[in-house]
Write a structure and sequence with these properties.
CATH superfamily: Rhodopsin 7-helix transmembrane proteins
Organism: Latimeria chalumnae (Coelacanth)
Number of domains: 1
CATH class: Mainly Alpha
Number of helices: 9
GO molecular function: neuropeptide binding; neuropeptide receptor activity
Oligomer: single chain
Protein name: Neuropeptides B and W receptor 1
Distance between the termini: 58 Å
Structural class: mainly alpha
Shape: globular
CATH architecture: Up-down Bundle
Mean pLDDT: 78
Low-confidence stretches: 1-23, 25-36, 239-243
Membrane topology: Multi-pass membrane protein
Strand content: under 5%
Radius of gyration: 22 Å
GO cellular component, one term: plasma membrane
């Protein structure tokens, strides 16, 4: 365990760095504060509450529109729907994380501990893997357009099967975290954290490397390769074969997927970079370092409430469908 006792002397000053799992599971929030309360201790629950409220509202709207509006039944929107469901699940349980933070201990029992850890890890892995699938889909669309071929296999039903496979794959990935998620009695306070067997430091490093590789390096590398190949094909099509470019709708969808990906990387890259720092550097626990760690965690949480606004700004079909559904519900 790497629990922090936050007082003026900072007695637990040998910290392994900006944690990855420890941040997401609040292992740094075991405060004992005889002196002035740090500003971030007050700010963090406010930020989390805003993320929760905005995320629930936005993702609920996305799920509702995609399920109810006939025009939204597209392959890309199946993946966006699953992305919104993953974000919705996380924002639904965020109040429990806020309560854990404010109470300075875990009062909800071991079953809830494992459940919250599982949902937290679903949020960590599912977003990037659904974006990977969306990138593969965009690449296949571009290739088919360049070669003037029809994609008979690219159907709404096939997209639902692929989404189910992604959920199954992510479930397998997060199983170790569910197993290691336990209640730990830390000086009389119950904490919901990862309890690793001996040698604990080795398991600690292995868990961070595992998340870094499976949750960032592999999917992001795949996405970068796909988009590089896609841009090369588009450039080749424009310069060499003098064919028509992708139509306006396909360009917009590709742009939307790219921007969603960029926002996801913006929110999650500091989180995964902190893993590298944690593995390679010994950082002293200071208020500044702990404040930075909470900022990184909040940034990763914020990704769960940003995507709905991207759909609203970038997708005309979504805006029109949302407007139409609202008008139908408010009509006498």
């Amino acid at each position: 365990m790497e629990n922090v006792s936050l007082n003026p002397e900072f007695p637990n000053s040998s910290c392994k760095g900006l944690g990855s799992y420890s941040l997401r599971r609040n292992e740094w929030t075991n405060f004992t504060i005889p002196g002035p309360i740090p500003n971030f201790y007050i700010a963090v629950p406010i930020i989390y509450s805003v993320i929760c409220a905005v995320g629930l509202t936005g993702n609920t709207a996305v799920i509702y529109v995609i399920l109810k509006a006939p025009k939204m039944k597209t392959v890309t929107n199946v993946f966006i729907l699953n992305l919104a469901i993953a974000d919705e699940l996380f924002t639904l349980v965020l109040p429990i994380n806020i309560a854990d933070y404010l109470l300075l201990q875990w009062p909800f029992g071991e079953f809830m501990c494992k459940l919250i850890i599982s949902i937290d890890q679903y949020n960590t892995f599912s977003s990037i893997y659904f974006l990977t699938v969306m990138s593969i889909d965009r690449y296949l669309v571009v290739v088919a357009t360049v070669k003037s071929k029809k994609m008979s296999y690219r159907t709404y039903r096939a997209a639902k099967i692929v989404s189910l496979c992604v959920w199954t794959f992510v479930t397998i990935i997060i199983l170790p975290f569910t197993v290691f998620g336990k209640i730990h009695n830390d000086w009389g306070r119950l904490q919901c954290v990862f309890v690793f067997p001996d040698p604990e430091s080795l398991w600690w490093k292995a868990s961070r490397i595992y998340t870094l590789i499976m949750g960032f390096a592999i999917p992001v590398s795949t996405i970068c390769i796909l988009y590089t190949m896609m841009l090369c094909k588009l450039r080749s099509m424009h310069l060499n074969i003098n064919a028509k470019a992708l139509d306006k709708a396909k360009k917009k969808v590709t742009l939307m997927v790219l921007i969603i990906l960029a926002v996801c990387l913006f929110c999650w890259t500091p989180y995964h970079l902190s893993t590298i720092v944690a593995l390679t550097t010994d950082i002293q626990q200071t208020p500044l370092i702990i404040g930075i760690s909470y900022f990184i965690t909040s940034l990763s949480y914020a990704n769960s409430c940003l995507n709905p606004f991207l759909y609203a700004f970038l997708d005309d079909s979504f805006r029109k469908s949302f407007r139409k559904l609202v008008e139908c519900r408010t009509a006498p």
